Amino acid sequence: MEHDKKDKPGYLSGLLTGLIFGGVAALLLAPKKGEELRDELKDNVEKVKERASTVGTTVGVAALDVKDHGAELLGSVKEHGSALKDEAAHHIEDVKSSVVGAAHDVKVEVSQAAEDAKKIASSAKDDAADAADDIVGDVQDTADDLGLGDDSEKPEQV
To answer: Are 36 and 42 within 8 A, CB to CB?
Structure first.
């Protein structure tokens, strides 16, 4: 694109220079009187000036249009970029909030599971102690039934 910009001014200036020199050469080489030649040369120079002025004005107007359109586009890009940034920040906050909420829920569930495990372990311990007491009681009852419960009642071993 930059290459095109360089070629256009060079082409335009070359065209204008060629027109001027061609016009001057044609007038100077034409078999006319000096006064006629000067008048014709003056007319051609005026035409070239008018044409150059018209081209310059057209280029200037086009440049202003491009500048204005570029400024509009830049403003639009900034506006849309800002809106996208705000939307992304909103989504980030939503995700962050969801993650924090989920982490809190997991923490609560783990704490509750730990409490439940402690209760179950304590209950199992109590059940085991009761079962051991029952077994000890049953063993003593059996020993008493067999007459082995008291040392005085035990037969002496030889």
So the answer is: no
Cα torsion for 21, 22, 28, 34, to the nearest 10°?
-90
Q: Which residues contact 140 (CB under 8 A, 6 or more apart)?
A: 149
**8 Å CB contact between 19 and 55:** no
Give the structural domain span for 9. 2-146
For residue 23, the Cα-to-chain-centroid distance in whole angstroms is 61
The amino acid that residue 106 corresponds to is V
Structural domains of the chain, count? 1
24 with 16: CB under 8 angstroms? no
Asked whether residue 57 is domain-assigned, the answer is yes
pLDDT for 16-48, tens place per residue?
788 787 877 776 676 666 777 677 778 888 888
What is the sign of the dihedral through the CA atoms of 108, 112, 115 and 117?
negative
37 close to 30: Cβ distance less than 8 angstroms: yes
